[in-house]
Structure formats: structure tokens, C-alpha cells
Write a structure and sequence with these properties.
heterotrimer; A mainly alpha (521); B mainly alpha (363); C alpha/beta (246); A: 521 residues; mainly alpha; ABC transporter involved in vitamin B12 uptake, BtuC; 4-stranded antiparallel β-sheet; two-stranded antiparallel ribbon; elongated; C: alpha/beta; 6-stranded mixed β-sheet; 10 strands; transmembrane helix (chain A)
């Protein structure tokens, strides 16, 4: 029994290609004949779906198909001349190019398109789907249906489905047309919209159905656009969150206004540049330079923060306006020092391969991977910050000192050391923000200045001293900014956000998440 | 809170300062005259020195305005550069209108940049700027209104201290972004330049420059007397009280909002006037004037001179800018270090400024 | 009965994030009355002062002075109505002289332009001299308030209240941190001031309250616990429990 089955399978396997080969060779011969024969042969080859037909037809279309006096067909390519039927190398002596007319050309174009749809090469299939979509002919429907059934790559499937819907739209049969309309209604692209509008003019009979399809299509487009805006907003918001988190610690928790905060972000970005330069040329290390830069940036900026706090800020506690001016001066010095050390021009930080490219989410939503990483990174840093404040001994001492310095001191906490560590911690977070910013912005000495005002806005908006407020503040400011952008333009959106924020502070002077308790009232 | 106020009893230092101030003003007044001397004369002063001094006088007016708000009422504005720039833009619009058909495109009404951007009509907010009194009025009015709105919103909700500073910085930052845009109708990032004349006098003529110099000097002296009058009135004492113990002032029945608003609006208008005098002298205005760095640099002039002293503010404007001119010619890379160092040194070591240093040595 | 110059609190509650600083407090102070308010820490004494002077808005309840609804007015308006307040921690303007402090407090138009035009008349000067005499600060007229002693600062602040010529005076712990001699002087000063004005004194020091010799209100947990002459209040078992029993 098994043996018999095996034989049958073997026979089938042997006979199928043999059969196809016969059809291929049969049709191939027709290409050497008259124009009518050539056109018929091209159509048969196209319908046959044999992968070997494609190079032959292309050669004919390009005038590279040669014919020996004995009607053997040869293909001339850059690599040499081969026999069309077998693919074996051949001699072109005595052969002449096969001539074609316009009728043959039309037949060839269709056949090549059909064959490419089932080509083993994915890029070729995608290009073919695109081409078929553009020609839009009802004749392609069966072909597309067949190709769609075999296709496994989702992106190409979508393209083919769109091409199929477009082809159905121009079919003679109203039922088929309705299928096309239904498919386009869910496509959610501007192209589908244009097709439907065109079909509406061409076939007034289907007007109501097309209108209904347009309504649902517009809904899909709107949802998609909203999702894209949301993603961009979250992406901007996560950058703001990173820049503002450190500030939420130094300004929000400690009450120290540090105008050099942006420069700590900048230091973090330059630490990334240095780490990357150090890793260059060590192949196994190179892809990991970015993760390595995170602790480096934290340490560099944190150390700078500790030095600033111990050396200068400490002497100005209780004098916020002086602190503001002094730290602004420090920021200037840091900027100029980096400008002299690294040059004023932008430095590029190359994203490792695992961070590059775009990711396609279900529904055709495209997201750039490095921005996704920044979002993830900012949330991780937020989580770690909260954990450090809530669950570590250092966090406990920090909260004790900020709530009641005198009592903390009497309980044996060295308040000076805690101040320095807290400030270093906040500055270190700024440094980590610099690592993330190096992925989406130019690394230049004045990198930080663009973020400092926004960061203060986030902290004030969210409520000074509240990390949850900083999160909500950053994300909502980011989203609002991106929501306004299409209507007002990037710059005016920013201006509008600033003005809106000032009005918001009128209603809630203590931000979204005010500190609780009698002391705050 | 460290308090720096002028004691009402005239001391020897005070008299000395007064004499020195008068001497300096007379010397300044002589400068355009000495400029007219032949170039090989021993007392000749070059065009460069006269024009840069004219600029510094405008800066000193701005410094007085900042001192009035910060030194007396405790309002540390990091956005005074915006008022200065708005005043400059107002007069710049007037100067642009006066170019008339002499522009590159030769359009009788529209400035070159508008022709280039394809405008066919003058935007409404440019109407009237062909009149000098109107432009001068706007140079005071626009900063005043902006300060009034921002101040009202901030003071009403009791935004004080660094929060107020940050808001004013955001204000000038937002304006900078807005003015960089071409479609705002203010010449985009190129701003205004290539001015020809003012009040019928060609701008590049020596006489016009001397006239602008004297106008600035007179404004500086006038502003000083205005500020001195205010700070010595009971309002000046209310402002000091607001600076040191705001809520106590409220319980005495004074409206802190009104007092702050008065001084902030007045200070903004003075800054606008300073900008209006500045632009014809330097011959250009662009959105860079709005950059937050400019405003904070002006604050440091006041801190260096000694805030709450008026004279000190003007002194600081002159001395810091003199240092800037000197350093940027001999070692441009060092200037930002020096400026940054100045911020640190003044706040940590010299909280009462140069004038405080003088006083401290005497007493 | 006339409501003019009468302080009237009814059912006043102040809630800070769930914490009831004042809980349904009712209190009436008649014109010309001097009232001492005592109570342990956190009883709501300072919050009560804040509500009357407009620093804190009550969550619910009525606060009236004469016919005016104080919950709708800000600090400056309430001060101009004739309600003066002396803070627990003496707050005078350090950068101004004693004379200038008193001049600022003097009843006069308060607008910025009026202040700009203000000229010190002989009448005003006489009034300031008189108050300096009363508070014993004449010799220090030209000194900055920053260099006064603690007691002198308290008196300067009381002097500023006198300059305001208020109908109602709120005095928060006037003798905290004073020497016995200073305390005595302060009590005399307050009694002298009282006269035709209403005075509300918040104090911890029971001896001082006894020295004033007037009606006493005891606050506890934001509400009134007891009211009456000092001896009656001191024997009230609820008061004893609050002060001693915890």
C-alpha cells in the first residue's frame, strides 16, 4: 500500500514539471513565428506561470532575443548568450534579433506583469503588484486571485489585495465591482480614496454604495492618522520626559533651579560620542556601544552634577534667583568648553543595526524603530527613578532631607552628602537623556538649550515634585504639540502650547498633580 | 534676602558718585564733538568708538529698566530682551517703509522681503508705520501691552520668583521662534536692514549719528531721573516691601498685582524705547535679538553693577560690554568663559555688585 | 442689633486634601470686644486667621465683617476694610527704616499712582511720631528694621497695625519668644489699643491670656470646644481633657 502510494506520488511529481516544460517549450516556439503567433505565444507563456518564461519575454521586449536561422531562440545578456529553451551557453553567430510589433508589445507587457506576480523574488513580486495596480484591468483579476492565494509576505499581500480591488472596480460585472468597492473601503489609504472617487464618476449606478464605502474609508483613514499623530506625540513626549525627569528631581524634589540642566543632557550626548569612538574598530563591541554609553553618560553627568552642587550651588541655597543666574553661567562655560574640545559642528552618533529601520504594525501603521526605543528607554528610566526614590535607602534619606532637613540631620543623616547625591542623581538622569537624544537629534554643544525651557514647562505643568505629573505632563505636552502641528505649523504649535500653559497655570497654579498636605496649601 | 537700598542720608560716597556720574555724562556728550576733530588730532575719537558707545548707552537704558523691575520689585525677568527687540522692530518697520522705491525691487510701498515672498498688499499691521510718531508710539505701546498681558496673568495667579523668570524666558523664546518665520511678515530670519534715512536725514551721515547718540544719551539721563523719582517715592518703598515680604504688603491693603504690573509695564516700555534707539544706530534688527541668552546677559550687567542702585545698572552695562568688546577682539574663544565666570563670580562673591564693593570698602 | 464692625463666622470648614483644618467653626466677635483664642497645636487657630484675612478660602461656611462677605474678597481688600493682622513671626520690612515701615502702613490711598504722588504732610508725620511714641520706637526712627531686636520688631508690627487704624485687629501669638518684661509691655500695649476696636488674640501663654482678662474661646480640632471667662474655661472638663489628657 505504502509502496503504491509512493509510486503514485513519484509519478505525479515527475509528470507535473514535465507537463509544464512541454507547455513552456511549445509556447516558446511560437515566439519565433509571425506577429500573430508571437502575441499568442506571449499570452500562453504569461498564463502558464513558468518562472523560466520571464527572462525570455523580457529579452524579447528589450530586443535582446535572437533567432538562429534554424529558429533556435537565444538570449543575449551582459554575461553572454544563452539558449532560451535550456539556458545553456550558446554561440550567437548568424543569429538575428527577433522583431516585434506593437500588438506583440502589448501582449508582452501583460505577460511579463503576470509572470512577475509569481516570481520567486519578493521584490519582483512587489514591483509587479504595483504595476498591475497601476494598469488596472479586469483581465488581471483571475491572475491576481491566483497570485494572492500563493503569496505569503504580508506587505505584498496587501499590495496585491489593493491591486485586485482596483482591478475589480473596472470589471464589467457589477457584482465584481461591489467586491472591489468593499475591499477598498477597508484599505485606509489615500490611493484607495482616489480610486473610489474615480469609480464614482465612471459608474454612477453604484453611487450610493461607493459613497457608503467612502464614509467608512474616511473613518479608517482618520483612525490611522490619529494613531500616527499619537505615536509622534508619544515619541516627542518621551523625549520631553527624559529631559524633564532629571529636572523633576533637582528642581521638583530639591527645589534647586539648575539652568545648566540642558548642558548635562549635552554632556550625556557627548559621552555617547566618545564611547562610540572608543568602540569603533572592535567588531564584537561596536553594536553595543549605545547600551555601554548609558552608564557612561550617567556617570559623567552625575559627576559634573555632584561637583556643581558641592562646589557652587550649596553656597546659594535659599537664593533661587541667584542660583538661576549662577547655573546659567555654568551652562555657558560647559557649552564653550565642549565647543572647544569637540568642535562646534554636529557630531553624528550612528544607530546600531538593531535599532534602525521601520516596523510595520497591523493596519499598515509604520513606526520608526529608534523612536520606539526612545519611548521604551524613557519609560524604563522613569521606572528606575521611581524605584530608586521609593525603595532604596538613598531614596528614603533623600525624601527625609527634602521634607525636613533639620530632623533628618538630627537622626544622623548627613544632609550635605544626600544633597550632593540627589543632585548627582538628577544630573545623571539628564546624562541618560543625552544618550537617547543622540539618536534623534544632532549632537552639538547647544543641544541642551532647545530642551531646557520645555523641560521646565513639563515640570511646572505636571506639578512640581510629582514624578507621575512629569510623566503625564511630558506625554500630554508632546501629543498636544503634535496634534496642533498640522493646523498651526511646528513653530506656532510650540507658541500655542506655551501660551496655553500660561493660561493653564492661571486655573491650576500648582500643576496637574499638586503636592498634597497642609504645607502645600 | 539681601537688601540693597539707597540710604536716604547723603554720604560722601553718594556725593562722590553723583560727581563722577555727571563727569561721565559730560565726557560722553563730548564724544561726537571730538569725533569731528581731524583724524590726526590728539583728542580725535574714531567713528567706531562713538558708534559702539552709542550702542552701550542703549544697553544702559535697558539695564535701568531691568534694575527697576528686579532690583526694586524683585521681578527677575529673563525676557526683557523681547521688549527691547519689539521696540527695535517697531522702529525698524518705520525705517523699512522709508526705503520706499530705493529697494532692490524698487516697489514703491512694499519692502524688498515682501516683494520676494510674493506679497501684493501691505499687511494691516504695517499700516501707519510710515509715520515716525506712530512708530515711536508702537515701540512703547507693543512692549507695554505684552508686559501688561503676561504680567497680569502671572501676577494675578501669584507666579513669583523663578517661576516668573521661566515664564518670561519662555515668552521671549516663543517670540524668537515666531519672528524666525517668514509668514509672520517681519522679514523672517533676515529681519530688517539696509535702512536709508530717518526723519529726512541719511542714516550713514555723521550728523545723523551724532543726533542719535545725543538722543540716546538724553534718554538715558531722562530714564535715570524717572527711575530715581519712582524709587524714592512711596511707591518705591512699596516695591521694596513687595520684593522682601510680598504677602505682608497685601495684609497692609496694597494690591501687589497693581504695583508689580505698574513697574513691569513701565520697565518694558523703557526697554522698548532703548531698542528703538538701538536699531537705527546698528542698522539691523533680526530675530536673534529675541534669543533668551540676550535677555539673561542683560540681567548680568545689572548684577555686576549692583542691583537696586540704578547707577550701578548703567555702570554694569558699560563695563561688561567694554569687557566683551575687548575680549572678543583679542581672544574670542575666551569671551563665553569670561561671561559664564562672571555669572558665577557675581552671584557667589559679589552679591551687591561693583557698587556694593565700593560701599563696603567705605563703611 | 447692628452688624456694623461685627465679625461673624458661621459653619466654616477648611479642608486640605481630606484634612479638616477647620470643622464647622462658628464665632462672633462684637465691635469693641477683645477676645482671646487658645487651643493646642493644630487646633486651627492660624487657619482661622487665614480665613478671616482672605489668605485661605473656606471650603464651606459664611465669613462676614459687618455687611461684607469676606470669602469673596482678597487680602488687600479685606485689609482696606479695616481688618489688620499681626503675624506669629514678626514680619516687618527689613530694608526700610522704622519710619518708612510706619509710613507704608498709614491709612492713605493704596494705588500705584497715588503712591507715586504721595507727599508726607505734617499731619501724617505727626501721626507717625505719635505711634512711634506709643510703641517706644521714637529713638530708632531712622534705623533699618533689620537691626531691631525681636521685641522691637513685634512692637513695630503692632505700630503698623495702629497706623492702619483698623476696626478689627487679629493678633497671632504676640508674646512668643519675648522676655517677661516685654510680655508685660505688650499686654499693656494691646489693652490700650483695644479701646473702641475689636481685637482677636491667639495665644498659647495662659498667663498672658489671664493678664488680658477677657472672654476666651477654646479651639480644638478645628471646632469650638468652649467659650467664656478664663476661670470657667479652665475648669471645663473637656478643655482639661484636651490640654492634659492626651
Amino acid at each position: 500500500m505504502t509502496r503504491a502510494l509512493f509510486l503514485i506520488v513519484l509519478l505525479l511529481a515527475a509528470s507535473l514539471p514535465a507537463h509544464a516544460q512541454d507547455a513552456f517549450l511549445d509556447a516558446l516556439a511560437g515566439l519565433a513565428g509571425g506577429f500573430t503567433q508571437q502575441a499568442e505565444a506571449a499570452e500562453r507563456l504569461g498564463a502558464g506561470g513558468d518562472p523560466r518564461a520571464l527572462p525570455v519575454l523580457r529579452a524579447l521586449a528589450d530586443g535582446r532575443l535572437l533567432k538562429r536561422p534554424d529558429n533556435t531562440l537565444l538570449i543575449r545578456a551582459d554575461a553572454g548568450v544563452t539558449e532560451a529553451a535550456t539556458g545553456a551557453a550558446a554561440d550567437a553567430a548568424g543569429a538575428e534579433p527577433v522583431r516585434i510589433n506593437n500588438r506583440v508589445r502589448v501582449a508582452l507587457r501583460g505577460a511579463i506583469g503576470r509572470l512577475a506576480l509569481v516570481s520567486p523574488d519578493a521584490a519582483e513580486r512587489a514591483a509587479a503588484a504595483e504595476a498591475v495596480y497601476r494598469t488596472r484591468s479586469a483581465e488581471n483579476i483571475p491572475l491576481l486571485e491566483a497570485a494572492l492565494a500563493r503569496e505569503s509576505v504580508p506587505r505584498i499581500r496587501d499590495q496585491m489585495a489593493l491591486a485586485l480591488a482596483a482591478s475589480r472596480l473596472v470589471a464589467a460585472d457589477a457584482t465584481v465591482q461591489r467586491q472591489g468597492i468593499a475591499a477598498l473601503a477597508g484599505a485606509g489609504t489615500e490611493g484607495a480614496r482616489a480610486l473610489l472617487l474615480e469609480a464614482r464618476n465612471a459608474t454612477p449606478a453604484l453611487g450610493p454604495e461607493i459613497d457608503a464605502a467612502l464614509v467608512s474609508l474616511d473613518r479608517v483613514i482618520a483612525v490611522k492618522r490619529a494613531a500616527e499623530t499619537l505615536y509622534q506625540g508619544l515619541s516627542l513626549g518621551s523625549v520631553l520626559l527624559l529631559a524633564a525627569l532629571g529636572l523633576a528631581v533637582t528642581f521638583g524634589v530639591m527645589g534647586v533651579i539648575n539652568m545648566a540642566h540642558g548642558e548635562f543632557v549635552m554632556l550625556g550626548a557627548y559621552a555617547t560620542v566618545v564611547v562610540q569612538d572608543a568602540c569603533r574598530g572592535i567588531p564584537w563591541l561596536e553594536p553595543w556601544s549605545l547600551p555601554l554609553a548609558v552608564p557612561a553618560a550617567f556617570l559623567v553627568a552625575g559627576l559634573a552634577g555632584a561637583m556643581l552642587e558641592r562646589g557652587l550651588i550649596r553656597h546659594l541655597y535659599g537664593r533661587p534667583l541667584e542660583t538661576l543666574l549662577m547655573t546659567f553661567g555654568v551652562g555657558m562655560i560647559l557649552q564653550q568648553a565642549v565647543r572647544l574640545a569637540f568642535g562646534a559642528q554636529n557630531r553624528e552618533v550612528i544607530s546600531p543595526a538593531w535599532m534602525m529601520g521601520t516596523l510595520e504594525l497591523p493596519g499598515g501603521l509604520m513606526v520608526t524603530q529608534n523612536r520606539l526605543w526612545v519611548i521604551v528607554f524613557s519609560l524604563v528610566v522613569l521606572g528606575l527613578t521611581i524605584a530608586a526614590i521609593r525603595f532604596t535607602r538613598f531614596g528614603l534619606e533623600m525624601r527625609a532631607v527634602t521634607q525636613n532637613r533639620r530632623i533628618a540631620a538630627t537622626m544622623g543623616i548627613r544632609t550635605g552628602r544626600v544633597d550632593a547625591l540627589t543632585f548627582a542623581f538628577g544630573s545623571g538622569i539628564a546624562g541618560m537623556a543625552g544618550v537617547a537624544l543622540s539618536q534623534i537629534d544632532n549632537v552639538s554643544p547647544n543641544l541642551g538649550t532647545g530642551y531646557i525651557i520645555d523641560s521646565f514647562m513639563v515640570v511646572v505643568f505636571g506639578g512640581v515634585g510629582s514624578l507621575a505629573g512629569t510623566l503625564v505632563g511630558a506625554l500630554s505636552l508632546g501629543v498636544v504639540n503634535k496634534l496642533l502641528e498640522p493646523y498651526a505649523g511646528a513653530v506656532l504649535a510650540k507658541v500655542a502650547v506655551l501660551v496655553g500653559l500660561m493660561l493653564f497655570i492661571q486655573r491650576k497654579p500648582r500643576g496637574l498633580f499638586p503636592q498634597k498636605g497642609r504645607a502645600a496649601g | 534676602m539681601s537688601a540693597t537700598i539707597a540710604t536716604p542720608t547723603p554720604s560722601r560716597l553718594r556725593l562722590g558718585l553723583r560727581a563722577a556720574t555727571i563727569a561721565v555724562i559730560l565726557l560722553l556728550a563730548l564724544m561726537p564733538v571730538l569725533n569731528r576733530l581731524p583724524a590726526d588730532h590728539a583728542l580725535h575719537i574714531s567713528d567706531f568708538v562713538v558708534s559702539i558707545t552709542g550702542k552701550w548707552i542703549c544697553y544702559a537704558i535697558l539695564a535701568l529698566a531691568i534694575d527697576l523691575a528686579w532690583g526694586y520689585a524683585g521681578l527677575l525677568s529673563l525676557g526683557h530682551g523681547a521688549f527691547f527687540a519689539l521696540g527695535g522692530y517697531a522702529i525698524g518697520m518705520h525705517l523699512m517703509r522709508l526705503i520706499g522705491p530705493r529697494g532692490v525691487y524698487g516697489h514703491p510701498v512694499l519692502p524688498d522681503f515682501m516683494v520676494f515672498l510674493g506679497y501684493t498688499d501691505l499687511p494691516i499691521f504695517w499700516w501707519g508705520f510710515q509715520s515716525f510718531p506712530y512708530a515711536l508710539f508702537m515701540a512703547l505701546f507693543v512692549p507695554g501691552v505684552l508686559a501688561g498681558v503676561v504680567g497680569f496673568l502671572a501676577f494675578r495667579s501669584r507666579i513669583t520668583g523663578v517661576y516668573f523668570s521661566i515664564i518670561t524666558q519662555a515668552m521671549t523664546y516663543a517670540l524668537m521662534l515666531a519672528f524666525f518665520r517668514n509668514d509672520m511678515g517681519f522679514g523672517g530670519n533676515n529681519g530688517f536692514t539696509d535702512f536709508k534715512e530717518l526723519l529726512g536725514m541719511p542714516l550713514n551721515a555723521g550728523g545723523t549719528r551724532a543726533a542719535l547718540f545725543y538722543a540716546s544719551l538724553a534718554t538715558l539721563v531722562g530714564t535715570y531721573f524717572l527711575c530715581a523719582w519712582i524709587t524714592r517715592s512711596k511707591l518705591g518703598r512699596v516695591l521694596i516691601a513687595v520684593r522682601d515680604a510680598e504677602s505682608r504688603v497685601r495684609f497692609l491693603g496694597y494690591s501687589v498685582t497693581q504695583a508689580k504690573l505698574f513697574v513691569f509695564v513701565l520697565s518694558a516700555m523703557i526697554s522698548g524705547l532703548a531698542g528703538a534707539l538701538y536699531v537705527p544706530q546698528v542698522g539691523i534688527i533680526n530675530p536673534g535679538e529675541f534669543s533668551p541668552g540676550n535677555s539673561i546677559e542683560a540681567v548680568i550687567w545689572v548684577a555686576v553693577g549692583g542691583r537696586g542702585t540704578l547707577i550701578g545698572a548703567a555702570l554694569g552695562a558699560f563695563s561688561v560690554n567694554a569687557m566683551k568688546t575687548w575680549l572678543t577682539t583679542i581672544a574670542p574663544d575666551l569671551w563665553l568663559f569670561a561671561l559664564g565666570g562672571l555669572f558665577v563670580a557675581v552671584t557667589l562673591l559679589l552679591p551687591k555688585g561693583l557698587l556694593g564693593l565700593l560701599r563696603g570698602r567705605r563703611s | 442689633m447692628s452688624t456694623k464692625g461685627r465679625l461673624y463666622l458661621d459653619g466654616v470648614s477648611v479642608v486640605f486634601d481630606g484634612f479638616r483644618a477647620l470643622n464647622n467653626l462658628s464665632l462672633v466677635v462684637e465691635p469693641g470686644e477683645m477676645r482671646a483664642v487658645i487651643g493646642p497645636n493644630g487646633a486651627g487657630k492660624t487657619t482661622m486667621m487665614d480665613v478671616i484675612t482672605g489668605k485661605t478660602r473656606p471650603t464651606s461656611g459664611t465669613v462676614r465683617f459687618g455687611d461684607h462677605d469676606l470669602t469673596r474678597m482678597d487680602e488687600a481688600d479685606i485689609a482696606n476694610l479695616g481688618i489688620g493682622r499681626k503675624f506669629q513671626k514678626p514680619t516687618v520690612f527689613d530694608a526700610l527704616t522704622v519710619f518708612e515701615n510706619l509710613e507704608l502702613a498709614l491709612k492713605a490711598p493704596r494705588g500705584p499712582f497715588a503712591c507715586l504722588r504721595w507727599i508726607l504732610t505734617g499731619e501724617a508725620k505727626a501721626r507717625i511720631d505719635q505711634v512711634m511714641e506709643e510703641t517706644g520706637l521714637t529713638a530708632r526712627a531712622g534705623d533699618l528694621a533689620a537691626i531691631l531686636s525681636h521685641g522691637q520688631r513685634q512692637w513695630l508690627e503692632i505700630g503698623m497695625l495702629l497706623m492702619q487704624d483698623p476696626q478689627l485687629l487679629l493678633v497671632d501669638e504676640p508674646v512668643a519668644g519675648m522676655t517677661d518684661q516685654e510680655t508685660e509691655h505688650t499686654a499693656a500695649l494691646l489693652r490700650r489699643i483695644a479701646g473702641e476696636r475689636s481685637v482677636v488674640v491667639v495665644e498659647h501663654d495662659l498667663e498672658f491670656v489671664r493678664a488680658l482678662g477677657r472672654k476666651v474661646t477654646v479651639l480644638h480640632e478645628g471646632t469650638m470646644l468652649s467659650e467664656g471667662p478664663i476661670d470657667q474655661v479652665q475648669n471645663d472638663p473637656r478643655v482639661i481633657e484636651v490640654y492634659l489628657g492626651r
